[in-house]
Write a structure and sequence with these properties.
Blueprint lengths: L22 E2 L4 E5 L5 H14 L5 H4 L5 E7 L5 E7 L8 E8 L10 H13 L1 H5 L1 E10 L4 E3 L3 H5 L3 H10 L18 H6 L4 H12 L5 E4 L2 E7 L1 H4 L10 E5 L3 E4 L6 H19 L8
Antiparallel strand pairs: 1-2, 2-4, 3-4, 5-6, 5-9, 6-7, 8-11, 9-10
The structure holds MYO-inositol-(1,3,4,5,6)-pentakisphosphate (5MY) and adenosine-5'-diphosphate.
Length: 287
């Protein structure tokens, strides 16, 4: 089995200091290392529960990576990995964004030390003020014809206007490395707005979150992706294949019959940001 580091990972842990990072194979699978501190165990528990839970509607399953169990992986010193569908396997020039949802990333059951660490990040980013934060993104720059990924530090410093601007940049054709340039939102209608676009998918998810009490998705992210190859070729809107997926279930807890207000609130706010861009694609917030 040929394994390599994923080309377009935008957030989360990477191989560092002897610890393994995610890997992908050529058969469309994504291998995520089981993290210590019971996080890995908890994520496996979630996937096992979710994949056999008959209360999860079929049309909602498509928003989650397919789970293929766990596996000891040779290229990674035999470490156990969670085997998932590689969400980017069918994309050749993907633009990708990871958005961590919720007005808080901590939860009462966590240790005081962990809560304080999360609180610091939550108040210092748009988590508290907007109900989500952009954890990472990579866009295909249509002027430079190459991928552009901002430094993490830059993302952590985004305020609400900065997040709004970044969501425009994500669907713009003008150069992204130029901080001063105003995003043209050229792909907003095909990526965010088309009948199968990001907004439609977010609204379908929201419908489920308004009722589901099975799980609480603490610290979970929405991963948005679309294809640039088709846009470059001038094909029609549907070829951008915009996709919304949920990732990172290391801190998911049982819902115990209670609505996940934290995720739902963040999702509603995020939907409003996307809607605003669609309603005024030419407006551009100052960074
Ligand atoms: O260590 P940090 O500060 O980079 O925090 C990680 C987060 O990075 P962030 O600062 O939010 O961009 C990281 O967030 P992303 O996945 O990058 O959005 C995770 O929250 C990670 O924890 P876990 O894998 O969910 O248990 C976080 O890792 P832990 O520190 O909780 O191990
Ligand atoms: N199934 C997947 N397919 C493709 N890429 C993925 C998949 N899951 C995660 N990723 C990539 O890895 C990043 C980190 O994933 P995540 O599950 O949040 O890891 P961590 O627990 O280390 O934070 C995501 O932002 C995304 O770029």
């Amino acid at each position: 089995m040929q394994l390599k580091a994923p080309e377009h990972q935008v957030a989360g842990h990477i191989a560092k200091d002897g610890k393994p990072g995610p890997l992908v194979d050529d058969k469309g699978r994504f291998f995520k290392p089981l993290q210590g501190d019971s996080r890995g165990e908890n994520e496996v528990k979630f996937y096992e529960s979710f994949s056999s839970n008959t209360e999860v509607p079929e049309h909602i399953r498509r928003y989650f990576p397919v789970y293929h169990g766990t596996q000891a992986v040779e290229g990674s010193d035999g470490a156990a990995m969670i085997v998932l569908e590689n969400l980017l396997a069918d994309y050749s020039k993907p633009s990708v964004m990871d958005v961590k949802m919720g007005t808080r990333t901590w939860y009462p059951e966590a240790s005081e030390e962990y809560i304080q660490k999360c609180l610091k990040k939550d108040t210092g980013t748009t988590t508290v003020s907007a109900g989500f934060r952009i954890s990472g993104f990579e866009v295909f720059d249509h002027k430079e014809l190459s991928f552009w990924k901002p430094e993490r530090k830059l993302l952590r410093g985004l305020n609400v206007d900065g997040a709004r601007l970044t969501l425009r940049k994500f669907v713009s054709s003008n150069s992204l490395s130029d901080i001063g340039s105003k995003p043209d939102s050229a792909f907003a209608s095909s990526v965010y707005g088309s009948s199968h676009g990001i907004l439609t998918q977010l609204l379908e998810l929201k419908n489920w979150f308004e009722n589901q009490t099975l799980y609480h998705f603490n610290s979970c992210s929405i991963l948005m992706v679309y294809e640039n190859e088709s846009i470059l070729k001038g094909n029609d809107d549907d070829d951008a294949r915009p996709q919304v997926k949920l990732v990172d279930f290391a801190h998911v807890l049982d819902g115990n019959g209670v609505i996940d207000h934290n995720f739902l609130g963040g999702l509603c706010s995020f939907i409003n940001f996307i809607r605003d861009i669609l309603q005024s694609p030419n407006e551009s917030a100052e960074s």
